[in-house]
Design brief:
By secondary structure, the protein is an alpha/beta fold. Helix content is 28%, strand content 24%. Strand 1, helix 1 and strand 2 form a beta-alpha-beta unit.
Length: 284
């Protein structure tokens, strides 16, 4: 096999992540040139849908069309932000590789420097994530949190152009991958301490057909096993809780002394906090 077709969403971040995958594949296979095919997903087209509203549209919002292209053999591997990939995959599909994770932290982009502590009392912060909303309001219950949709550059533009918004929560990994200049002039970015990320946040996953050993073999050199063990622990918790985008769940696995240390946060159906806990994978 001397080529591979990578399927991806068309957003700036999705393309940046796919180019990163392609670069790592070229480094692992010097005589090899990956191809990139852009596929529009429901999540890219249905900007009227709230990500915090539970329902059938939520599952596979950013992945369904990519998986259909895989099953139809239009592409050989689909590049996903792992946090967008449902824990249950369609029959015949598997995760073929997970790249080494980038910084999983959440970032506040705001008009004023100084991060969360510098926001005025009653300031308005935008996010489409119930997880971010729940943890943000625990840290600053005085804040007003509003819904926002669109890809990362669009959300940043909305913040820059709308004086009613004081801040916006985003994943640091996405901002880093988009590179210098993505944050409009006059805005400031600061990591928010005390917020646990979404399961899989910061990790890139490659989904492929289970019956394609050639593709799986091509992906092996870029797979990062320690990242895979950590994010699988996070996704296993999400799977057990039956959650998706509408579940206020934060989870972060870290690799320590040959085992996974898992910190978690979630709210139950009554809105009560289940205290962050630590689980350890004793098998390493």
């Amino acid at each position: 096999m001397n080529r591979i077709i990578l399927g991806t969403r068309g957003s700036a971040l999705a393309l940046a992540q796919t180019r990163l995958v392609a670069a790592q594949l070229r480094a692992a296979h010097p005589a090899f040139e990956p191809e990139i095919l852009i596929i529009k997903t429901t999540g890219d087209q249905r900007l009227d849908v709230s990500l915090s509203a539970p329902g059938s549209l939520e599952k596979g919002l950013f992945t369904k069309e990519l998986e259909e292209a895989l099953l139809a053999r239009k592409i050989d591997a689909a590049v996903h932000s792992l946090k967008d990939l449902p824990t249950e995959l369609p029959e015949g599909l598997v995760i073929g590789a997970i790249l080494e994770r980038a910084d999983p932290a959440d970032v506040l982009v705001s008009r004023s420097a100084g991060g969360l502590e510098a926001l005025a009392n009653g300031a308005t912060v935008a996010t489409s994530s119930p997880r971010r909303r729940a943890q943000l309001l625990q840290l600053r219950p005085d804040l007003t949190v509003v819904e926002i949709r669109g890809n990362v550059p669009t959300r940043l533009r909305k913040l820059a152009e709308n004086p009613a918004l004081d801040g916006l929560l985003l994943a640091k990994a996405g901002l880093d991958r988009l590179g210098d200049g993505i944050i409009p002039e006059g805005l400031h970015a600061c990591v928010v301490e005390g917020i646990l990320p979404a399961p899989g946040q910061g990790a890139i996953a490659l989904e492929c057909r289970d019956g394609d050993p050639d593709v799986i073999d091509l992906l092996k050199p870029i797979h990062h096993e320690e990242t895979a063990r950590c994010v699988e622990a996070e996704r296993d918790l999400l799977r057990k809780l039956g959650g998706g985008c509408s579940l206020p769940l934060g989870a972060l696995g870290t690799w320590e002394n040959g085992a996974v240390r898992l910190q978690t946060f979630w709210l139950d159906s009554d809105g009560k906090e289940n205290r962050p806990r630590i689980d350890t994978d004793e098998h390493g």
